[in-house]
Amino acid sequence: MTAAGSTPGFPGTPGTPGTPRVLRAMNDRAVLDLLVAHGPLTRTRIGELTGLSKPTTSQLLGRLEAAGLVHTTGSLSGRPGPNALLYEIDPGAGHVAALSADPTGITALVADITGTVLGRERVEADAVAEDVRHRTAQLVTEAVDGALRQAGLGHDDLRAAVIGTPGAIDPHTGQLRYAPHLPGWHSRTLRDDLAAVLGTPVDIENDVNLAAVAEQYEGAAQDHDNYVLTWLDEGVGAAIVLGGTLLRGATGGAGEIGYMPLPGAPLQRGEGEDEGKGGGNGGFESLVSAYVVRELTGGGATLDEVMADDTALGEVARRIATGIAAVVAVVDPELVVLSGSVAQAGGDKLRVRVEEELTGLALPRPQIRISELDGDPILTGALRSALTQARDQVFDTA
Question: Which residues are CB-contacts of 140 (< 8 A; sequence separation ≥ 6)?
Fold first, then answer.
């Protein structure tokens, strides 16, 4: 999870720690991060927040302005003396692409370095269709190009791209695992292929990990360093964050709780292409996926209708609590966030019932929260991750 809980670094910074050049770069980055976090600030306020002297702050701002990283944006009036100039990040200093891939298509966003979204494009494509399997890079390019056109930008303007997909990239092979229903994404050279066509480095990240990034930045997991995000949708998974660090596992598969065997859900064997689309053939996903939940009242019902049925709601809560208990017994998180369409349909009623099911167990009792993020948390997390990468490049003034 690239963005969550990380402190901006200075990869590749030349020089020896403590030299004037390195100290200037550190001060530059500190001020740029303040402007990202707070928005426009006066020179005086920047000095107060950083402890830098007025001359040093003035020199620093002049240097950043000359580098095209900040600019003035009006002035602050209503106080004695001359109006104070306000400084902000220059949004044109860099741009990023954030994408979410799913079995029915690809969505792309393009944003400036401040995080303002400038373009959005959706390309519909059935991931298992024969004419799609070998066109993954082309479809990604179509989505990004559409978003770039809306933003009035080109590939050369991009500094980073992050794509969220089901499954996880094996760090040893570079191949996507745990996502047989996305056959076009399994090439070992896919990341390099995408970087070549987009003209910028590309990260392919697990979609639930990115949803957890979104929760830590602006959702239910803010101020928490030990939490689990449980994704309950057509597919089921989790992101496990311990000590502020994402637990990835040896092959990138940590958190793939959809495969987890539970009472009534035997260990899943083999990988079918319908996995993630109908509950698979075993594991936790076969108990709580959106497809399975919709069938609890006899079929044909929406998730909202199922959750309005008290008996069905109780059954869903019992199944979810059983899965959460297994995770809690291993990693002992302080918080579990429930996200995805099943959690959204159940809302606070579902949260309360899950908590009731966990009461009395000989296990730690984490807080249970329902995600309240607006929009697509996977895209939000991809955007946050891409911005972190781009800022590490653009804001490095050494």
Answer: 99, 101, 106, 108, 163, 194, 197, 198
Q: Note the helical H segments in the chain.
A: 20-38, 43-50, 54-66, 130-133, 136-151, 190-198, 207-218, 285-288, 290-294, 303-308, 310-331, 341-358, 377-394
Chain Cα centroid distance, residue 98: 9
How many residues appear in the chain?
398
pLDDT tens figures, 118-155: 999 999 988 767 777 678 889 999 999 999 999 999 99
Q: In this structure, is the dihedral angle defined by the CA atoms of residues 40, 45, 49 and 50, taken in order, positive or negative?
A: positive
pTM above threshold 0.85: yes
- Among residues 376, 288, 369, 285, the alpha carbon closest in space to that of 334 is found at 369
The residue among 339, 26, 301 whose CA lies nearest residue 208 is 339
Q: Taking each helix axis from N to C terminus, what angle separates 136-151 and 190-198, rounded to the nearest 10 degrees? A: 30
Is residue 135 within 8 Å of residue 142, measured between CB atoms? no
**Cα–Cα distance measured from residue 159 to residue 213, given in angstroms and rounded to the nearest whole number:** 20
CA distance 69 to 91: 8
